[in-house]
Design goal:
By secondary structure, the protein is an alpha/beta fold. Helices cover 38% and strands 26% of the residues. Strand 10 and strand 11 form a beta hairpin.
């Protein structure tokens, strides 16, 4: 069967005018790509009946499947149900079952359903309801022309549940491809996308039938490496995946910080919990973002002992009883700060993140010198790094570098392995 042609239509004046950033489209496109379903067209339409009808009709002639996002709310500018019925040539009818669902939604929250919400239960007569367990706007699907249309709410968390639980399984069934698909993900810090692409050249060929696809999703400072595997069932998928994922682990080595749903901060908290460890953090310039990655997590109340955040080295020195702290930062200084923070807090581990930012206006060649210190019962380790790219690039890079060096130290790996983002 030929590759399914998919179009996404995003609706709403606020999306068309740029008043809100259209993150829903990027989410949908990436999620579909993870399952081997590529989007061919994207259309953005305002809250106008004629424009919406024209967009639906055009999509119905060129696409096999269309996802329409937005326009399912209770207000007068929410037009998706009305225009879908018009495009399909059917009437709008009250879906009694969804009306009951909405009423119970409000009752559980000790509220009375406003009369205008009844509009959300008016669906095209031929529509198939797509459940929305966390909102009042049900999705629905129906045929318009040659295409199957899927209508989704604009609220991101409602959209994501519907896409993952309702729409992707239906699209896979319609595609004629094997519906057993598995997405394996590797998260890394320190290697750029082109570098990883070169390192992993040929890994797909370990399974010669083309059922394993390698892909990347770069979101500095991390990189996600994806293996999409198709098979008749999970047993076949596991057989195909085993040699490929083993080779990915071998080639990326120490740079893999987690897999699948793991996060860098989650790995750190889990490691510290396992060893009954605790952590103190001292950081400059980053605005407390190192601590913010650790402290809110489940288990953070046990692991996170204290944080010191300041831009002024002298203030940090006064807090820790190190009166001589002053720029330029150095690894010796970072080690002293980490050791003092550990002693003062009583934590088993302490992480110091000291940064000298270049002076001047923000620009691509503006950078920062980063000195890290990690102290524990066995002693102290440190490293120095320099990152260019502007203030935000330095801040993001410093936070990730600090957390990743702590991960490496906890896992017995070298903390000084050079990354692609550092400048000499």
């Amino acid at each position: 069967m030929a590759t399914m042609r998919i179009e996404i239509i995003c609706t709403g004046d606020e999306v068309l005018t740029g008043k809100i950033t259209n993150t829903n489209f990027s989410y949908m496109s990436q999620k579909l790509e993870d399952f081997g379903l590529s989007v061919r067209w994207e259309t953005t339409v305002g809250d106008d009946r004629e424009d919406l009808l024209a967009a639906f009709r055009q999509a119905s002639t060129r696409a096999d499947a269309v996802i329409v996002n937005g326009g399912l709310g209770p207000t007068v500018d929410d037009l998706s149900q009305e225009i879908a019925a018009q495009a399909a040539g059917v009437e709008l009818v009250l879906n009694e079952a969804w009306l009951v669902t909405m009423e119970s939604f409000f009752t559980r929250r000790s509220r009375i359903m406003p009369p205008n919400n009844r509009k959300q239960a008016m669906l095209p007569a031929t529509a198939e309801v797509l459940d929305n367990p966390i909102g009042t706007a049900c999705g629905f699907a129906l045929d318009i022309g040659q295409a199957r249309f899927f209508f989704t709410p604009g609220v991101p968390r409602e959209l994501r549940r519907m896409v993952e639980e309702q729409i992707i399984p239906r699209l896979l069934a319609r595609s004629g491809e094997p519906t057993a698909i598995y997405l394996k993900r590797f998260h890394s810090y320190g290697l750029g996308e082109s570098h990883v692409d070169a390192l992993l050249a040929g890994v797909e060929n370990l399974v010669p039938d083309g059922s394993v696809k390698l892909g990347f999703r770069a979101h500095y400072p991390q990189l996600e490496t994806k293996l999409t595997v198709r098979g008749a069932d999970r047993t076949e998928i596991d057989r195909k995946l085993a040699p490929v994922q083993a080779e990915v682990r071998k080639r990326l080595g120490n740079f893999i910080l987690g897999e699948d749903d793991q996060t860098l901060e989650g790995v750190l908290v889990a490691d510290l919990l396992q060893r009954t460890g605790t952590l103190a953090v001292v950081e400059t310039f980053t605005g407390g973002q190192v601590a913010a990655r650790i402290a809110p997590l489940p288990g953070g109340e046990t692991v996170f002992r204290s944080g010191i955040v300041a831009r002024d080295l002298a203030q940090i020195g006064a807090t820790l009883g190190l009166p001589t702290l002053a720029s330029p930062v150095s690894t010796d200084m970072a080690e002293a700060v980490a050791q003092s923070a550990r002693a003062q807090s009583g934590a088993t581990h302490a992480l110091a993140v000291l940064i000298d930012l270049d002076e001047g206006a923000d620009r691509m060649d503006l950078g920062g010198t980063i000195c890290l210190g990690i102290a524990d019962a066995a002693g102290v380790v440190s490293r120095q790094s320099r990152i260019l790219g502007g203030r935000e690039w330095v801040r993001l890079g410093a936070v990730e570098l600090a957390l990743d060096c702590l991960r490496r130290h906890l896992q017995g790996l070298p903390v000084t392995e050079k990354t692609d983002f550092e400048k000499s």
